[in-house]
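Q: Okay, next protein. This is DUF1643 domain-containing protein from Microcella putealis. I've checked the sequence twice, so it should be correct. Can you predict the 3D structure?
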Amino acid sequence: MVSADDGARFVLGTVGEHPFVCVGVNPSTATPERLDATVTRVARRAAALGFDSWVMLNLYPQRSTDPAGLHERADAALVADNERAIADVLRRRPGALCAAWGTLIGSRPYLAGLARRVIAIADTAGCSWSALGNVTAAGHPRHPLYVRGDAPLVPFDARAYADQLP
């Protein structure tokens, strides 16, 4: 699901009964026909972990190949559309989510607040959280590109994480 001008993407994935649902920081160039490096890694991890499908969500939906290119201030309409899309996905398929935004959450000050909001949406839907391998030294869940391909899924205490965010 993308915006009319293709400047934002809200949901990308495949259809199945047991999806691997990842939450990144922002979408890049991936489309259903052409996956980018991050989404390729997510799709491979889903298969390796025994999931029959995958879904990629993001804290902020603006497409940018570099998080430094994100809006200086969050676009309220994009945030609202993104949160509705996330809530819709989780309402239809509640379960486990993989936190996968890495240290990129520090790219913009508003991303921490958006993480807290997405975590609250997931809590409302009754979801649990995991991360790929151990968290970073700063406590952030690792980005799929910056973790070994065989890193296990480990429990991630998203509420405690949200409480320590600035």
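A: Here is a summary of the prediction. The chain has a mean pLDDT of 95. The helical segments are 37-48, 76-92, 110-125, 158-164.
Q: Noted. On to the next one.
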